[in-house]
Amino acid sequence: MGRAGAVTMAGCSYSFAGSVGSDSSGYGQLAAAANVGRLVAETVDLDFSRTSFFDANLAAPLGVVVHHLLRAGPAAISGLSGAVRAILDKNGFTAKVLGAPRRIDTHGTTIRYERFGLAEYPAFVQYFRHTVSSHGGLATVPLPNMREIEAAILEIFLNAAIHSDSEPGIFVCGQFFPHKNRLDFTIADSGIGFAGSLAKRYNQMFPDEEAVRLVIVQGYTSKIAITGGTGLRQVHEYLVATGGRLQIVSGESMWQLSRRPGWTPARLGSRFPGTIVNIEFNTLTPPRPPAPVGSFREMF
């Protein structure tokens, strides 16, 4: 199997290496894998033989990558074994994408992988309420806060469905990491990204990093209908108050929010073909979260 991004006699392959987590390195690997397909029109192989760990919630953007590659020609996944194979079997990714049998999750840590059509908002509502809102990992979240979070995430999904132009739909997945006291829920699409949304509305192109910053600020300070702005603001306020994290990937840019140091940008090195929103809950949330710290505008 070829090294990362290498062209081989059989076509192209991309090898995911080491531990692939919900960080700039992990998102960078997913973005790089999505761009291998531009080299040749032969089968693109996503090789996991060198992967020691893979955050299960990243199955959502991995689904985007697979569908992006399939637009240009055949794609394959190889080298799945051990813990990586087990978790992707348990969350239903291999069942949905490879037709493999789904493995029973006896520990109850997975939040299943799904792909929803752009018109399947009611189905997503049911999915979210049955798999995320009621998940034991979020038992510490007070009910009023959970209702607000649910409304915000449903808005993020709805705005993505309306504005992203993601032809294959919206991809979602999550994972509870009990030993790390965190639960991640990831929404990804294969659409035009934040820069594309701004270009459609204002007939002006912005760099990816600037586009994300503008959408976040505008979504906080006005009623402008930009994808997910209000929902992102509400999620941001809760996560900042409770020690969680919010990550947004669009194109080649990633922004991450945590209580300290606030919003921090990163470049991925390759363009992700769409948008990723990863919501990371601190599952040690106190019963009464402190008041939100600052605003989007104040934290840039």
Helix/strand/pairing category: alpha/beta
Intertermini distance: 43 Å
| Top-tier CATH class | Alpha Beta
Q: How many structural units, i.e. domains?
A: 1
User: In order across it, which strands form the biggest sheet?
Assistant: 7-8-9-11-10
Count, helices: 10
* Biggest sheet layout: 5 strands, antiparallel
The fraction of residues assigned to DSSP E strands is 25-35%
Topology as a string of helices (H) and strands (E): EEEHEEHEHHEHHEEHHHEEH
Give the mean pLDDT.
85
In terms of per-residue confidence, which ranges show pLDDT below 50 for 5 or more consecutive residues?
5-10, 220-228, 290-300
What's the number of extended β-strand segments?
11
Looking at the structure, what is the overall shape? globular
Fill in the CATH topology. Heat Shock Protein 90
Rg computed from alpha carbons, rounded to a whole number of angstroms: 18 Å
CATH homologous superfamily title: Histidine kinase-like ATPase, C-terminal domain
> What is the CATH architecture annotation?
2-Layer Sandwich
State the share of residues found in helices, binned by percent. Answer: 25-40%
